[in-house]
Amino acid sequence: MLNASELIAEYEKTGTLEALPIGHFIDGSFARPAHNRTMESYDPGRGEVFARFTAGGEGDVDEAVRSSKRAFETSWRDVSPVERARILHRTSALILENLDLLAVAETLDSGKPLQEAYGDVKGAARTFEYYAGACDKLQGDSFPLGPDYVGYTIHEPVGVTAHIIPWNFPISTAARGFAPALAAGCAVVAKPAEQTPFTALLLARLLYEAGLPAGICNVVTGTGAEVGAPLTRHADIDHITFTGSVQTGRTVMKTAADEVTRVVLELGGKSPVVVLKDCDKDQALNGVLGAIFENAGQICSAGSRLVIERSIHEEFVAELVSRTKSLQLGHGLSKPDLGPVNSAEHLAKIEGFLDRAKVRGADVLTGGSATHDPASGKGWFFEPTIVDRVSDKDELAQEEIFGPVLTVQVAEDADDALRLANDCQYGLVAGIYTSDFAKAHQLARKIDAGQIYINEYFAGGIEVPFGGNKKSGFGREKGLEGLASYCKTKSIAAKIA
Length: 497
Known about the structure:
Blueprint: H1 4-14, E1 24-26, E2 29-31, E3 38-43, E4 48-54, H2 58-74, H3 81-97, H4 99-110, H5 114-132, E5 142-143, E6 149-157, E7 160-165, H6 170-184, E8 187-192, H7 198-209, E9 217-219, H8 224-232, E10 239-243, H9 246-259, E11 262-266, E12 272-275, H10 281-293, E13 305-309, H11 310-325, H12 344-359, E14 363-366, E15 370-371, E16 381-382, E17 385-388, H13 395-398, E18 405-411, H14 414-422, E19 426-427, E20 429-433, H15 437-446, E21 451-454, E22 469-470, E23 473-474, H16 481-484, E24 487-495
Parallel strand pairs: 7-8, 7-10, 8-9, 10-11, 12-13, 12-20, 13-18, 17-18, 20-21
Antiparallel strand pairs: 1-2, 3-4, 5-6, 6-24, 11-23, 14-17, 15-16, 19-22
């Protein structure tokens, strides 16, 4: 097994990695279908093709779903919880054994800095470890029906689950869906984003190596139209977990309605970071920078709106701009502060937001333009950007840009900050920086979002339920609540006298 240095050297020499799979993973093995169609995968840091993968279609989806349904009904749903736990524990260990390959593949596929990819892979291992511990703790309840009856509930797996995985956090999102589904006794059919297929395929193989029965985790690669759509409308899918845009989420909901299929949707965000005048300023500065510039801002829960009290606005933003200008851009394998965005199309979208803002007279304090890797002159990069004094109805404050662009909104006081924080169609997460703990928790109760961070953005981990309100979706992933989506409760009442 090659280490990171050897993998990077291989990529620099050959422009690819030999260990990357090309076929779908169905029934315990990689297989290329008879049509043998392939797609190109790009390295965003160079803007160049570095690998190919199979372009699936409806027939491949049907084969994968039938395989999962058969395996679920004949084996997995009756496997004891303790054995499921052992398989998930072994998967966690195998992820760590393959840490270098998974991290380098994630960086090449998504563009993110290698140190962030390592964090994602380690987080995936922790996710399987966490849900391994939950397998044998899915306990039901008993009902006090009196001496003549006994009543209780049991949790049963919902069946075959579909997972539509986004391109910004491929292995993280796959793990947070696969692990609870498998812990509950469900089967998985996944469709990774066509921009980032490889770590989901590698993860499926590791699950099989850990002892998961063939067919219980299948992965089909291809486009949303040719793979995602037939997967979400398949009659044998019992649940859909979707992470992506609001527009596509609506389509998934409408499709699921035809078969009355359960859905969990994690959609967009335009999350506020509320910074009050009594905050620890250095702590807040570090938090705001990480909230928007990690993964080049391509995070549903990115802190893309700074809502700051007027009395500290000028000093705070001046220091924020200074720190932003010091960020180093580069190819993900060089471990820069900021990597590329994922595709040329997405770069153009981000650029469009800023071009329109400049026409409106926006106060762009730093950044605001597309650029390239300063070392190579290649890749799809956007300068880390701060736009000051954005009105609450401007599209920069209302629409998800999904890039390294921070909009600044000035609040008169804490009450005004609350108003601005809630004045948005999204409600995924919010951050609060203040030294007044009572005020922090008062704001946390009143801000309409699924998760609140106080004095540390992205606080918590797999233990903390995650999901949105309003147009950010519904349902929760992560934590013990994440198991509920993959279980159906059965109530049993019996007369015994």
